[in-house]
Every structure is written in structure tokens, then in C-alpha cells.
Amino acid sequence: MSLAERIPPGQRVTEHFPVLHKGPIPKFNPATWNLRLFGLVEKEVVFTYEQFMALPTVRIVADIHCVTGWSKLDTVWEGVAFRELLNHVRPLPQARYVMVHCEYDYTTNLPLEVLMDEDVLLAYRYNDAPLTPEHGYPLRLVVPKRYFWKSAKWVRGLEFMAQDRPGFWEQYGYHNNGDPWKEERYAR
């Protein structure tokens, strides 16, 4: 695939990895941190940090695209595939959406179908090094086929839902879907 085919409309390539987020960088304590999977699931699960880090690891190489107009190519992420988490909670048939809950009450919403893509993971490593706090350590969702605000930092919970609800930025006018190839930046 040519370089031009990898860049969505309205984007420019950067070598940098800009830092954008709401609120300060949270403090991390591995003894008290957990990840809660709840809502429309057969059984709610709460992973401790140690339990989460013991799950099978995957590695992906992906291009990422920010709603502000930058794209970064060939980023390398390691963590736990979203699909792996489903083995632990088994969503109920009516679960169609997921609300991603993060530190400071930040949220973002995604269809369960989008999260089922093989390149979606909860990452704790970036470019062969531990993810830095400003980029979401200890855990960041990575959804390469959506604008990067959907790849939420500092993830603490995944709520499985029947009906969609807008997340933080979606409540402030960002597009609900966020597909960079369709330039779904803002609600129309």
C-alpha cells in the first residue's frame, strides 16, 4: 500500500507523538489498580493489575490518526487483545455497545462490533518500551480504525450495553463513530 493510501483525508504525517488529554496524569498504584468488566455480561470480572498482566499478550503495528489532523505511521503496541477479555465475561446477546470508563470519569463509546476487530487491544507497551504515563500508562485502549480520542487513556472499566450512550467528547460535539476515512470528526 502506498503512503498516500495510508493517510485519511485531512491528515498530515508526523514523526512526533503529540500528548493530548483531559485532566492531569493520574497516579498509578499497582496494589490498588483494577480493571472492571461489567454490564450486560454473564459474570462481572475485576482484574487486579497482576491478573491483567498475566493475560496473553499480542503485538500489533498500526497507523493512528488524531482528530486534530495528525497521523503517525507504523506504531507498535503490545497488550491484551479485546477479544481475549470476552473469554472472561461472555457478553449477553443484547450487548451491542461498550462504554470505556477511564480515570477522572472520562468515557468514550464504541460499538462492540468495532472492538472485535483483530487489531484492537488494551495496551501497556508502545514501540517496544513501557507505555509512558502521558500516553496512558498503565492501560490504554487502542482502536486503530477510529480517530485516536476513541483510544482512551488510563482505562479502568468496560461497560457492556444494549443501547449506545455518548462518551465525554461525543457529548461536546465530536462524531459518535469517529471514522477517519469518512472524516467523521464532529457531529453534523
**Ends: how far apart?**
31 Å
| Record field, number of beta strands | 11
Sheet of most strands: 6 strands, mixed
Oligomer class:
single chain
Average predicted local confidence, pLDDT: 94
Describe the protein's architecture and organization:
With 188 residues, the chain is α+β, with helices and mostly antiparallel strands. The protein has one domain (13-18, 31-178): Oxidoreductase, molybdopterin-binding domain (Sulfite Oxidase, Chain A, domain 2, Alpha-Beta Complex), CATH 3.90.420.10. Helices cover 13% and strands 32% of the residues. The protein has five helices and eleven strands, in the order αβββαββαββαββββα. The strands form two sheets. Strands 1, 4, 5, 8, 9 and 10 form a six-stranded mixed sheet that branches. The radius of gyration is 16 Å and the shape is globular. The relative contact order is 0.21. The model has no long low-confidence stretch (mean pLDDT 94).
What topology does this entry show?
Elements: H1 3-6, E1 12-13, E2 34-39, E3 45-48, H2 49-53, E4 58-65, E5 70-81, H3 82-89, E6 97-102, E7 107-111, H4 112-115, E8 121-126, E9 129-130, E10 140-142, E11 155-161, H5 168-171
Parallel strand pairs: 1-5, 2-11
Antiparallel strand pairs: 2-3, 4-5, 5-8, 6-7, 6-11, 8-9, 8-10
Keywords, separated by commas or semicolons:
188 residues; 13% helix; 11 strands; globular; six-stranded mixed beta sheet; alpha+beta; single chain; five-stranded mixed beta sheet; Sulfite Oxidase, Chain A, domain 2; 5 helices
